[in-house]
Amino acid sequence: MAGSSIEHIAKELGAKAEGAVGLVVSRLSEPATAAADHLALAMSEKYLPDLAKGQAKAAILAEGTDWRALGLEAAILIARPRYAMAGVTALMDQGPHIVAGIHPSAVIDPSAQIGADAAIGPFVVIGAGAIIGPRARIAPHVSIAEGAEIGADALIHAGVRIAHHVQIGDRVIIQPNAVIGGDGFSFVTPEKSQVEIARQSLGKSDAAQTPQSWARIHSLGRVVIGDDVEIGAGAAIDRGTVANTEIGSGTKIDNLVHIGHNCRIGRDCLLCGQVGFAGSCSVGDRVVLGGQCGVSDNIEIGSDVVAAGATKIYSSLPSGRMVMGSPAVKMETHIEMYKALRRLPRLAKTVAALEKKLTNPKG
Question: What DSSP element (H or E) covers 332?
């Protein structure tokens, strides 16, 4: 890339630049491996010694850092360096190269509407009545089914599958091979199923071992995604049965997340890798679920809930609760339970010794 000056980067970040602000850098780098034309990211004290190992002439540093003492020629000083990562990486990211216009190999139904300045890559298929917003970028091998709507400035990476009548807002980013709008996993038996019996009895009675077959419940709803949503690679979001599956604006969804039919996810949530939702869950705003969290069907999770990685949520949670473990309990409760678990071997030895004294007091 051509590069940017320290002055320009600082201005874009709303930060202060000092030293040789006309210095041009071509890319970002960790301090220890930085070349002379790289901008080093030394955003906390622990990275400062690494600057001497690399060749960077400029770095992003926390306010108050003595950059001259570090041997630098220029510095960008910022109050919250970690937050600066969002701005500086956006500035330096050129993204996938998708040539403007419509590639000759794309197959687009005549009734589809393509917005101004949209870029449609090779082997893209767009169905009847689909709407692609202005400046949207569609990478190769994406399929967009009939009646789907994609908003302005969206970025759809290679291999994404968007099913019929899915509605996607503005500035949405979807990473490779995500599937949006597949049918929900909904099946029912003519008689009461073994699963229903187990739920009602809580496992107290064995289910009768009789033949049963599964009838499909068709998915007639849609997936509706708000603005500024990001969806990770390989994620799957199922359409609703009758009502829609909904993803609120600003929510970020990591790789391999599954969201079942009829789920409603609020605004500005953060769902980390391999999180799984069964059907008909309701999630408030600003909820954070760590990697591999699982949520049972028909659960309600209030706003501002935080769940540590691998937490299993089997019952509804009130707003503001911080939980951990399987089943989910308050974080402080889980920590006490874990401490008690670690003490069990010692406790077992103590109990064994007491038993021995009781059974053989003279021994």
Answer: helix 331-359
CB 245 within 8 A of CB 239: yes
Domains of the chain: total: 2
Place of tokens 């009548």: 165
| Calpha distance 27→213 (Å, rounded) | 59
Strand-pairing partners, residue 225, are 168, 247
| Cα–Cα distance, 255 to 217 (Å, whole number) | 27
From residue 207, give the alpha-carbon distance in Å to each of 105, 190, 196. 55, 16, 9
User: What mean pLDDT is predicted for residues 49-63?
Assistant: 96
User: Which amino acid is it at 51?
Assistant: L
261 labelled catalytic: yes
Last residue of a domain, one of 49, 77, 92: 92
pTM, 2 dp: 0.91
Q: Supply the range of the domain harboring residue 40.
A: 4-92
Per-residue confidence (pLDDT) for residue 207, from 0 to 100: 59
Are 106 and 121 contacting, i.e. CB atoms less than 8 angstroms apart?
A: yes
Side chain identity, residue 120: I
Enumerate long-range contacts of 221-224, CB under 8 Å, 24 or more apart.
221/245, 221/261, 221/262, 222/165, 222/166, 222/167, 222/181, 223/163, 223/166, 223/167, 223/180, 223/181, 223/247, 224/166, 224/167
Segment 250-268, tens digit of pLDDT: 999 999 999 999 999 999 9
Which residue type occupies 168?
Answer: I
What's the half-sphere exposure (Cβ side, CA atoms, 13 Å) at 126? 28
Point out the domain boundary residue: 92, 124, 141: 92
Residue among 157, 165, 261, 334 flagged as catalytic: 261
State how far the Cα of 323 lies from the Cα of 78, in Å rounded to an integer. Answer: 34
Whole-number percent of the chain with pLDDT over 70: 98
